TrEMBL record, chain A:
It is found in: Cytoplasm, Cytoskeleton. Keywords: Cytoplasm, Cytoskeleton. One of its GO terms (molecular function) is lipid binding. GO terms for biological process: actin cortical patch localization; actin filament organization; endocytosis; plasma membrane tubulation. The lineage of its organism: Eukaryota, Fungi, Dikarya, Ascomycota, Pezizomycotina. The keyword Cytoplasm applies. It comes from Eremomyces bilateralis CBS 781.70. Residues 17-237 form the BAR domain. GO terms for cellular component: actin cortical patch; mating projection tip; medial cortex; Rvs161p-Rvs167p complex. Its main location: cytoplasm. This is BAR adaptor protein RVS161. Gene3D superfamilies: Arfaptin homology (AH) domain/BAR domain. The keyword Cytoplasm applies.
UniProtKB/TrEMBL annotation, chain B:
The lineage of its organism: Eukaryota, Fungi, Dikarya, Ascomycota, Pezizomycotina. Residues 323-339 have a biased composition (Low complexity). It comes from Eremomyces bilateralis CBS 781.70. GO terms for molecular function: lipid binding. Residues 17-269 form the BAR domain. One of its GO terms (cellular component) is actin cortical patch. This is BAR-domain-containing protein.
């Protein structure tokens, strides 16, 4: 921290202590406070939106990734068992394509239309928070200098030059504060008003991306069906496949290496 | 470990050591070794199957949850924000009531979807994950048997070594003879034990592998149909989204750009938003995936996607986010240094996208005489009919190009002619 920065901080800290002690009058700006609360509400909501947007992409990826690993495993199982009948292959291909074509192809639009706009919007917040902090500093300065003037008026100092200097200081601080404050009071509502047009298109884009993903995922997966026997579907529906699995498990359990030794 | 087990462990220790360092005579049964290897694979695969099925169901659930939360967050933003919550008069009509309605409709659809998918996902749980889990249990038992066999093998080798040593000893005393007799007996016993387990495993492991095939096939088929059902349900439910709020006729990016307009510029004009910090450089080129979608929009909205696409040489679409603000007269290329000062979030988030292709310096005017060649900076795979594929480092002969590297150029490589994105290559100086 620079020396002047340090001095400023020290001055402000003193003013704040004096304020707490009731020695310095605090300026209240209701307009600003209202806008600040509105801004905070928006900030929280937007940050949540950002989190969810990222989470959605992550879980979509996780889903296709685990699907791919399942396909790999099944293919390996089949390979060992020596039944390459094309099912596991085509399944693997469908799943791979789903990842390579659909998910990755939607990645771009998702980024440009959903993730990046939201992240960009959220990236404004640190700057704004910086401005809010700065305004607060200027306000403290202003309050501090004003209190000084008040004190000098009530209890004139021997040095007559002190009052005009303090008055001048107070005037400068007031101006600095007002510039910042006006900026905040006019621009915060503007930004808040922009939030809907800014973020709303992303919502629509997200819904559309989901639509497309679901449609493509289904059509890709459905293609595998042609490699399966016609009656497999009925067997599945009637629970025969599960019965078969149970049966095999039972047989395996009967092997003496499986614990009966 | 039991006392007995511990004692056995101690007596076996020297032989274990020998086996580790391959000292002395060791029994190796190639058939068993192979079976063991397959067995290990089986174990790993079963485990993978189980883990990933679990992850899969988890991911679907969390995807739906994020969808719900996303729309909730949207609704939160669409609501009119008042600075004085307790004062009803302070609510100005500045929110987005239609948007909120759309959010609610959307949320209810997703919730419904989640409800419908629940039994489906539970089925995966019950019919895939559980059997796989059971198989894993069995595998553990088999593993135990295999361990036992290994121990017996150790014993067998150990006894044999002792016997051999005694046999080789010259001038046997009476004591030695006794020991020899005992050793012979031990070897006999150990051989029997070892052979029993070895043969058992050798006959039954292949049976296990056969069962494995019988097991995985119906399991996989079940899994497939469950998955198909999941996707079908997703597709059906999402397809039925009929929220008037969304303009579903337009494609993703077109609608986005249309709806968005110049809001971003407006926002960044505000002095509290310091655009120099937030505004980055133009997007790192164009993700090739984006270009694919824009070039062949699957929906019927081809005409609306990029109004300026009428030309033969459609430029790769800009991501509307940043480019509209930076659109410069065509032909003018911003020097890369001008924009790189800041670190935009976009590059951090760009994850898988290609790195930002540096802008090639326009060395010639567009009327430059051919043949002109460029070097590929990245691999490019044809995304549509008439595209030119190439690998990094390929030298492409230019047939036609513009000054703007963000457009599609035409070139020739290995006798093939096709279009490719200009920012994937560098001009030869």
């Amino acid at each position: 921290m620079s020396w002047s920065g340090f001095k400023k901080n020290l001055n402000r800290a003193t003013t704040q202590v004096m304020m707490k002690a009731g020695q310095v009058e605090k300026t209240n700006d209701r307009d600003f406070e209202t806008e600040l609360r509105r801004y905070r509400t928006m900030e929280t909501a937007a940050m949540k939106l950002q989190k969810e947007a990222r989470g959605y992409l992550d879980s979509l990826r996780a889903m296709t990734a685990s699907q791919m690993r399942i396909a790999e495993t099944i293919d390996a199982f089949y390979g060992d068992a020596g039944t390459r009948d094309g099912v596991s292959r085509s399944y693997k291909k469908a799943v791979d394509d789903l990842d390579a074509e659909t998910v990755k192809a939607l990645d771009g639009p998702y980024r440009t239309c959903v993730l990046e706009p939201i992240e960009r919007f959220c990236a404004y917040f640190p700057d704004i928070n910086e401005c809010i902090k700065k305004r607060q500093h200027k306000l403290t300065d202003y309050d501090g200098t004003r209190a000084k003037v008040k004190k000098l008026v009530e209890k004139p100092d021997k040095d007559v030059t002190k009052l005009p200097t303090a008055e001048k200081e107070a005037e400068t601080a007031k101006q600095a504060y007002e510039v910042m404050n006006d900026q905040m009071v006019t621009e915060l509502p503007q930004l808040i008003d922009l939030r809907v047009p800014y973020l709303d298109p992303s919502f629509e884009a997200l819904v559309k991306i989901q639509l497309r993903f679901c449609a493509e995922a289904y059509s890709r997966m459905a293609q595998v069906q042609q490699y399966l026997d016609k009656d497999t579907r009925d067997q599945y529906a009637e629970g025969q496949l599960d019965a078969r699995v149970e049966e095999v498990l039972h047989e395996i359990r009967n092997l003496s290496i499986a614990g009966t030794v | 470990m039991s006392w007995k087990g511990f004692q056995k462990g101690v007596t076996r220790a020297p032989q274990t050591f020998k086996q580790k360092f391959n000292i002395g005579e060791l029994t190796k049964d190639p058939i068993y070794v192979d079976a063991e290897r397959r067995f290990e694979e089986l174990e790993q695969e079963t485990k993978r199957l189980k883990d990933n099925s679990e992850r899969y169901t988890g991911a679907i659930n969390s995807m739906l949850n994020h969808q719900i939360e996303f729309s909730k967050a949207c609704a939160e933003l669409y609501k009119p924000i008042s600075g004085r919550m307790s004062d009803p008069d302070s609510f100005v009509q500045e929110g987005n009531p239609e948007g909120i309605r759309a959010c609610e409709e959307y949320e209810s659809i997703v919730r419904d979807l989640q409800e419908t998918l629940k039994p489906e996902l539970e089925m995966i749980e019950a019919r895939v994950i559980k059997p796989a889990d059971e198989l894993l249990e069995i595998i553990k038992l088999v593993q135990k048997t295999a361990n036992k066999r290994d121990h017996k093998q150790l014993d067998y080798d150990r006894r044999r070594a002792t016997l051999k040593k005694l046999q080789e000893k010259k001038d046997k005393t009476l004591k030695d003879e006794k020991a020899l007799y005992k050793a012979e007996n031990d070897v006999e016993q150990a051989t029997q034990d070892f052979n029993y387990f070895n043969d058992l495993l050798k006959t039954e492991l292949p049976q296990l592998f056969r069962f494995e095939r019988d097991f995985i096939s119906p399991l996989f088929q079940s899994f497939y149909y469950m998955q198909l059902n999941v996707f079908y349900t997703l597709h059906e439910k999402m397809q039925s989204i009929d929220i008037g709020y969304f303009d579903l006729a337009l494609d993703i990016e077109g609608a986005f750009a249309k709806k968005r307009g110049d809001v971003q510029e407006q926002a960044e004009k505000l002095s509290i938003v310091r655009p120099k910090a937030a505004a980055g450089k133009p997007k790192p080129g164009i993700s090739k995936y984006v270009s694919k979608y824009a070039k062949n929009p699957t929906s019927s909205s081809a005409s609306t996607a990029n109004p300026e696409d009428g030309i033969d040489n459609p430029p790769p679409p800009y991501s509307p986010v940043t480019h509209s603000s930076l659109s410069s007269p065509s032909g003018h290329l911003a020097p890369p240094g001008a924009a790189t000062g800041s670190t935009p979030l976009s590059t951090a988030a760009a994850g898988k996208a290609k790195p930002p292709p540096p802008k090639p310096k326009p060395r010639r005017l567009s009327g430059a005489p051919p043949p002109e060649t460029v070097t590929a900076l990245y691999d490019y795979e044809a995304q549509a009919e008439g595209d030119l594929s190439f690998l990094t480092g390929d030298v492409i002969e230019i047939i036609q190009r513009s000054e703007n590297s963000n457009e599609w150029w035409t070139g020739k490589l290995n006798g093939k002619q096709g279009k490719f994105p200009g920012n994937y290559v560098q001009l030869k100086s």
